[in-house]
Design brief:
six-stranded parallel β-sheet
Length: 320
Amino acid sequence: MKAVTYHRYGAPDVVGIEEVPTPSPAEGEILIRIHAGVVTPADGAARKGEPFLIRLMGGIRRPKQPILGSEIAGEVAAVGGGVTRFKVGDRVMAATGDTYGGHAEYVVLAEDAAVEHMPEDATWEQGVALAEGPATAMPFLRDHGHVRPGMHVLINGGSGSVGSAAIQLAKHLGAEVTGVASTSNQGLMRQLGADHVVDYQQTDFTAARDRYDVVFDVAGVSSFGAVKGALRDGGVYLDTYPSLNTVWHQLVTSRLGSKRAVFAATGLRKPEQKRPDLALFRELFESGQLTPVIDRTFPMEQAAQAHAYVDTGHKTGNVV
């Protein structure tokens, strides 16, 4: 099978296409023919090996796992013995977790991995997008921000794959939502349900005082120190990037003060934690409460170009 691979850290041009063996499902496993994957900032960080914490997990000198891609949409091509949840031909969306392998033509996953049936009317692009942004946004908002009705939540980076999902999911959880993005994305955030929008090119949201219960910095361009004044007492700053600054503030604020900084490796959650969320995202899509945003699609052969585009930091929604 064809796979998008990389064998050294670096710029997008380290990514290429090569032939690798097609896996076969063992007992309790399913083989998925992948129709769509996504390139995310996390894939770019893994490709670059930055920050250095990534190399501690993925290989100091060179990547241990040459095939990136943690979210996929596809159809079940074969099943191993004892499989009961899926049959050949089922359309599924899945998160492969820290094993990656999604940027290829096929992948094998355990039947009890983070795999769920896709919504009937969803395209492959929508299916994989449901497995990506919402799967990061929901645990941050629900499990770490404890978002509930009446809270005021700010999403910094509201036009990206995680941010666009976070706006919709925060509304689903009953919050009043402020989205922050560039001038060109103000309309999109309103369309997604944001109650208020902020153009970061004109307004500094951190200048607000005691306004937000949760600030979710999806863009990873702020800091707890800068945002602290905008948080109400008991407020939470959520950061998707494992910077030393955030880790330090998380340690300190867990013991001191009423405002907290939180980083969480949501992609490393166990499959039994992810599966119910995938089922929820399917239901929200089918009820019209969650709409994935697709920016661009690239053929597999243009994976390096997809990485380069994501590296610009200006994508809107998902790059498939």
